[in-house]
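Write out this protein's structure.
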Amino acid sequence: MRFVLALQHAVLNSDLPAPARHLLLSLAVKADWETGAIPTAHTPALSTLSTMTGLSKSTVAEWLDVLQTAGWVKRDRPTKGGNSSRTHYTLLIGVPSVAKPERASRRRAKAPGSPPSGQVRLADTASCPPSGTRAVRLADSSRPPGGHASIKNSPPESSISRDRPTRAAYRVSTGSLRSRSQDASEGSRIPDDFRPTEEMRSWACANTPNVGHVATEAFIDYWKAQPSPRGLKTDWTAAWRNWMRREQVTLELRPGFRGTAVQTVMEARPTLPRPAEEMCRDHRGHRAVTCGLCRAERIAADK
């Protein structure tokens, strides 16, 4: 049977604490299976053992001392004049139970409700009120109201509750405002029988020729689905005309539009006729100074 397997069985069947077991099994990963010695190329440092076990370097060093005393680990530390700078480990099978390190035994778990460790600020008995008295911040009379007032100068709770409106009263007041917003003077919802009239169709043929009845159906469905405050209008015919104009503009701005541009077309500015002396006498429509045909003829004549 190989030595490392025997070492693992001995560790698992012993009464060693969990950190000691974890440290021995981590060292066994790097040890030679026959001799239990860790080769020099694989000798771990304290930082490596700390990473492998999850323990701090100081805890690893403490448990290594305990395991060496109990006969589980043999360490050959480098000397000052030696060539090697690493500690050589050889694993052995020691006593089945060991005592905790001295430093670890002094670490006591905190009892529930115990004060935190470290420096504690002592209470200022001269400025603190006696036990059982709640500290109160008095109001500064030199400052304008709005800060924290003291209990002595604050109004009683009964007067505050009388002046402050309740949620039910707020809902009733807002509900009355919402009901008044549905008056005819502030607008109404779209009629259920809203349909374009002949006059509206004539206007659409002249101003939005590329928008069909689908836009009208979308207009009706959109405003029927809106909630009450938003779905109120004073003139639904004017709202329909604005909707149709926007649809026409959207179509005219699309690439490849081949319809009749009505909403985005610009009126042509009248152009003033140029004086006769500025125009070329031989080529109609060209200016005399920049006539390209005359220049081409002169170049041909020079050749």
